[in-house]
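Sequence in, structure out.
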Amino acid sequence: MSDMSEASAKHFARSIIPLYHNACVTIRISSIEYKYKVSKDLLCRESTYFSAMFEDKFKDFEAFLQWLYLGKFKFDLDEPEHHIAATIELARFADMCNVTGMQIQIGRYPKDILIASPCPDYEGGGGVDTYCLTSQDIISATFLPQGHEIRRILAAATLSGYLLCENHKFAEEAREYPTYGFDLLQEVGLALKGLRFDRKRVIHKYHLTGDNRNIYQFRSL
């Protein structure tokens, strides 16, 4: 915290004093059976950990509680990209708390959203199911453990663009984040094992939906 004695009177009165008089939170240390009552605003101002916990993690915790009691969760959000971002954060929260039983459902949630929200202006070339994905989604997912369902889903969704377009939507992320690049290469390996050829096309099994999609269209002579 900056030296309060150096603050102007206006800043001290309007910005610093309220930190000590707003809502408080109680922190209980079980090992010593003692409770500390602390200004919530002051705690959040000086700690990004507590700020994230109070401002964002409560949403994750609420979704976790819904899953714990009902076996499912539902976010009160409008846009599909917000649902995907919230699901990735819930997955990170579950991983942090060593909750393993909800991984499959967490992976299914963004998968269904991606399939249901394709690019409206798609004209081929890969990336039809990445319309709702953002760079931050790709980056956030890299913090999940290797083999996590969400990492696999995001890699599968972006595979076609990676194979068909030199400058695909997440080309920079594939270069800058080795974890994501590793996931893509794993999907490439699966795609190569399932390649099929006919007279006009090279086809691979699209793991996001299970259907067959073109990788290459042969030119007519």
